Amino acid sequence: MLIVLAEAKLGEGTIDAGREALTTMIEASRAEEGCIGYSYAIDILDPLKLHIVEKWVDNDALLFHFQTPHMAAFQKALGSLEVEITELAKYEADDGAPVM
Question: From CA 7, how far away is CA 91, in angstroms rounded?
C-alpha cells in the first residue's frame, strides 16, 4: 500500500471558494480502481491548514491518478485559489493491523 500525506496552507476563504472543486476531486479519486482512501481535513487548531491523506494500492495507481481528467481539472481550479503545499510525501506500508 502507498500512503500520501500532505499539508497545505490556505488563504482566508479558500475552503469556501474551492469547496466544489475539492468535493469533486475527493469523489472522483475515491471512485478510482486503485484508491483505498482519499480525504481532506481542516486542522482544528489552525483553520487555514488542510491535511490530505491518500491511500493507494501501489505506485502505479498513484501515477494513474496523476493522469486523470479530474486531476487536470483540479489543478486548474487550484490556480485561482490561495493554496501553498507545505509538506508532501509518499510512504510504503503494509496493510496494517489493529492497534488494540
Answer: 15
**Alpha helices of 9-91 — where are they, by DSSP H?**
14-30, 59-66, 69-78
Where in the sequence is the domain holding 42, given as residue range(s)? 2-92
Which amino acid, residue 73? A
List pLDDT tens digits, range 18-67: 999 999 999 999 999 999 999 999 999 999 999 999 999 999 999 999 99
> For 17-22, which contacts have Cβ atoms below 8 Å and span 24 or more sequence positions?
17/80, 17/81, 18/77, 18/78, 18/81, 18/83, 21/73, 21/74, 21/77, 21/78, 21/81
Name the domain count of the chain. Answer: 1
Three-class DSSP category at 63: helix
496523476: which residue's cell? Answer: 66
Please check whether residue 100 lies inside any domain of the structure.
Answer: no
Residue 60 within a domain: yes
pLDDT at 87: 97
